[in-house]
Fold this sequence. Notes:
Helix content is 31%, strand content 15%.
Amino acid sequence: MAEIAIISATELKARLDSGEVIDVIDVREDWELKIMQLPFARQIRMIEVLTRLDDISRERPTILICRTGSRSGRTIEMLMTRGYTNLLNLDGGILAWAHEVDPTMPQFYT
């Protein structure tokens, strides 16, 4: 299997700020989104991904995020076995976004 491509929080912010059309999918659970979430990301929980393939673009760049990048990485692996090639994992997850881009967000949660 191909290696999972990653993107840093600052790289994602720069691409969004430039106006690039990027899908951002948050694979975390509902309770996690209550703690912190990115307003431009839409939720497709990891457990739902394989039943919602039609909701995930095969053309546009798509960034998957979770808390630290682990679950989103595993989700990308699942999607790659189904032919997706346009996926990037947010390195460090939403916690990296909070640390590198938006320090007003919680810096940690379990």
